[in-house]
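User: tokens in, sequence out, please.
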């Protein structure tokens, strides 16, 4: 089970440290980032299915995924905690509008 999520530079989410429970409810004002958090999980699903680049292209390209685009954010970073295990990643944009792993 995913127990904690740290996310930096994704869409409207500049910096997030979110502890998760077995059941979670997202409540917030319009524009607070609820839909973008769900978009992150859709991106993870694409990554798991080896269709990350296709997903990025279909959803508007790299600038649509980075906080205020690549001019403002040079890297999308995250840490996923699964009980005692964790998965860290850093994704950087390329000149051909892809996100590639640097970590």
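Assistant: Sequence out:
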């Amino acid at each position: 089970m995913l127990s904690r999520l740290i996310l930096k530079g994704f869409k409207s989410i500049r910096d997030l440290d979110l502890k998760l429970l077995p059941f979670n409810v997202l409540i917030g004002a319009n524009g607070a980032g609820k839909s973008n958090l769900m978009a992150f999980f859709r991106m993870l699903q694409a990554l798991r299915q080896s269709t990350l680049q296709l997903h990025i292209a279909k959803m508007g390209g790299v600038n649509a995924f980075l906080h205020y685009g690549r001019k403002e954010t040079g890297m999308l970073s995250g840490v996923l905690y699964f009980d005692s295990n964790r998965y860290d990643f850093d994704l950087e944009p390329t000149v051909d509008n892809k996100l590639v792993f640097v970590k």
